[in-house]
Amino acid sequence: MRLSILFLTFAVISLPGFVYGHPGCTHDKLEHNHEIMDVEEIIPSFDSNERVLASYPQVRMAANYDALNSAPAAYKTYMQKQLVPAVLDYFSAALKIKAPLKNKITVSSKTICGLSTPSILRNGGVAADYLLLLDSKLDSAGSWVAETYSCSLASGTKRPYIAKTLFNRDLLKDASKNVLLHEKNIYLLLHEVLHSLGISKSLYKYFLDVNGKVIKNPVKTVKLLGSSRMVLDIPVLTERARKYFGCPTLEGVFMEDDGSVGSHLERRQFVYEHMTSGLMYDQRISEFSLGILEASGWYVPDYSYADPYWFGQGKGCGFWKESCTSSSFDEEKYGYCTGSSRGCGAHGRGGGKCTSDSKSNSCRYIKPNVDYDCENPNADNYARLPSIQTFGRDAGSKCFSGTLSSSSSSASTTSFCFKYTCSGSGSKTKLTVNVGSKSIACSKEGTVTVSGYKGKLNCPDPLEFCSTIGKPYCPRNCGGRGTCVNNKCVCKKGFTGKDCGIAQ
């Protein structure tokens, strides 16, 4: 899989190496020559009620870094100690495997995945169910960030168990001293590994049903707004989508139709989901990323490791069936935006511009930008009224929009980072926004004035905000490296950070 940068801009702030922009993923344009390997798997048995008679183990994830020997020592150290373990630890905690490998992974050939076979695979083997081989090269002229594909499938279940990721060192930087860049790198590699675990058009034909049999026709073609569309229709996944969106007639999960057909979720309806094509800032691994892995029949996900996600939730069939170009389309109803002003992203972590792209089918959405991210300590460089805002990784602020200004009553709408408190419950939920030294009560959705400033602050609905955006959570359930206590990660010894994503 190749991630292509559609456009890049760099800001001169103290976040060195952070790539701004919207990387695209051209996974489906690569050749997929999977080799089916003769390996033993512990295949579960089923009773007449289709109930698995087994207690599934956690998937064992491993990596090999031999091919990184040509990279600078600091780069290899970052990959080996920080980035790759953070990703593999997440999957080891989030996934159980139905048919684990019985023996160690070994390879007798001299090459595997286009690389010289690591000596450990020819002499002893690796005790794992999935092995990721890491490689890198410097390509300053290229626009790709990383390339991943699964090389070997198990002979019984056809589950991919050996994969390779190639990094472009010119664009994926060593982020050992940059927390936000490290977080971005983690989500990039999570995206890559999800493809190699099963979210790939070339692998759907091997997906298994609850009886361990190959699913007949997991992919179908349906009409949507006059176009033929590819839909992943597997009962466990389709029912999850129908329940989430509140659309009982939804044909399945629609996959991207522009440039990366089949291996990515459709941007139009899954704007902020991690497995859309192209890594947008502040996307999340939702229940649908894990849901496709469950639908494969190879894994049993623990959905507590999905990030909170609510874009489109409960919006009904119209969210899927209506065109954004229709004069009757209600952008506000479905969570989209109009115009080109700056507002708050769906997760409230920061601001962005209202825009559309080639994959959003003309629907406009707030595209988060790190320059306006409330967790970026340098975002005050891009803020209106920075002295009354709060920025930083653990600052506890969220994004609020408005036209507040110190001098103009006709200032454009922009985003602000303010601390806040939620109290009460149900219809008595109260939201207080701290605008500098002033406490502003948002009792209902609408606009309020702030003494000493021109313009207005946009108050969100208190109940909706406090139950979604304003509700604290543990990113990726602490990634298998800690325990979520009162919506805050308590990291195991040796790890630190908001998400326990940093090895000490």
Describe what this molecule looks like in 3D.
The protein folds into 3 domains: 2-206, Elastase, domain 1; 338-467, no CATH class; 473-504, Laminin. It has helices spanning 73-94, 119-122, 179-197, 235-245, 287-295, 318-321, 331-334, 462-467, and strands at 2-9, 20-25, 35-37, 61-64, 95-97, 111-112, 115-116, 130-137, 144-154, 160-168, 219-224, 227-232, 253-254, 299-301, 342-344, 350-355, 365-373, 397-402, 414-423, 430-435, 438-442, 446-448, 457-459, 482-485, 488-491, 495-496, 502-503. Mean pLDDT is 91; it is low at 1-24. Helices cover 16% and strands 27% of the residues. It starts with a strand and ends with a strand. It contains 8 helices and 27 strands. Strands 1, 2, 3, 4, 8, 9 and 10 form a 7-stranded mixed sheet that branches. A 4-stranded antiparallel sheet has the order 18-19-20-21. It has a 3-stranded antiparallel sheet with strand order 11-12-13.
Q: Return the average pLDDT rounded to an integer.
A: 91
Highest CATH level, the class of the largest domain: Alpha Beta
User: What is the number of E strands?
Assistant: 27
The assembly state of the depicted protein chains is single chain
The biggest sheet amounts to:
7 strands, mixed
Write the CATH architecture name of the largest domain.
Roll
- Return residue spans where pLDDT drops below 50 for at least 5 consecutive residues: 1-24
In the CATH hierarchy, the third-tier topology of the largest domain is known as Elastase, domain 1
Structural class: alpha+beta
User: How many structural domains are formed by the residues?
Assistant: 3
* Termini separation: 31 Å
Count the helices. How many? 8
Q: What is the strand content?
A: 25-35%
